[in-house]
Amino acid sequence: MHGPRSFGELRLALPTLSAKVLSERLAGLERQTLVERHRRRGFPARTVYRLTGAGERLRPLLVELYRTGDALLRDRARR
Fold first, then answer.
1. pTM value?
2. How many domains does the chain have?
3. Spatial distance between the Cα atoms of 59 and 36, rounded to a whole number of angstroms
4. Which residue range forms the structural domain that includes residue 66?
5. Which residues fall within 8 angstroms of residue 46, CB to CB, at 6 or more apart?
6. In this structure, are residues 5 and 49 in contact, taking their beta carbons and an 8 Å threshold?
7. CA distance linking residue 79 with residue 15, whole number of Å
8. 14, 15, 33, 48: least buried by Cβ within 10 Å?
9. pLDDT tens column, 24-78
């Protein structure tokens, strides 16, 4: 949600997710037309992923889910 990212950048941002799982999830998001994949020419070739318009429209929902989950975890930690 922070703009186009290469596979490597996504791996760094999601260190607990294996490369295989990340690849599978990105492929699923691409099939659902929520993410676009662009292969950049050159050496080394880079694959860049970005949200489609449909993916962008999910942003407010995802942000709210994150905020709610974070608040619930904080409440639990206080008990």
1. 0.77
2. 1
3. 16
4. 5-78
5. 6, 7, 8, 39, 40
6. yes
7. 29
8. 15
9. 999 999 999 999 999 988 888 889 999 999 999 999 999 999 999 999 999 999 8
